[in-house]
Amino acid sequence: MSPHIPDRRQPGAKKLDWFEPSDEARVRVLAWTCDCLAMVYELCQAGGQGFIRCTLQNEDAPEIRETHRWSLAQAREVWAALLTGMVR
Ligand SMILES: [Zn+2]
Fold it and tell me: What is the pLDDT of residues 3-42, one digit of tens each?
């Protein structure tokens, strides 16, 4: 079962910066959150680096945003923090 992002951020949670998606050809999705919610988050890998992508599932056109690129280890840490509401 895919995890859900907690509704509320933890007190003192850090805010991630979100950017327009890059046109990366080879993106591997390593993990994702449940798509029963409008906003779906994915842990992605591209060229040995990791980042997080979020998609707002609009009826007509999904809105996609991505974080900075990090090392894969760092991206996994951010992913874990996201799932526990420590960053958003
Ligand atoms: Zn769900």
Answer: 999 888 888 889 999 999 987 779 999 999 999 999 999 9
Q: Which residue segment(s) compose the domain that 74 sits in?
A: 28-83
Long-range residue pairs from 32-37, CB within 8 A, at least 24 positions apart, any chain: 32/2, 33/2, 33/3, 33/4, 33/5, 33/83, 34/1, 34/2, 34/3, 34/4, 35/2, 36/4, 37/4, 37/5
Q: How far is the CA of 55 from the centre of ligand 1 (A)?
A: 15
Is residue 23 in some structural domain? Answer: no
Domain count across the chain: 1
36 in a structural domain: yes
Instruction: Please check whether residue 35 lies inside any domain of the structure.
Output: yes
For the cut 90, the answer to whether the pLDDT of residue 1 exceeds it is no
Ligand 1 centre distance from Cα of residue 34 (Å): 4
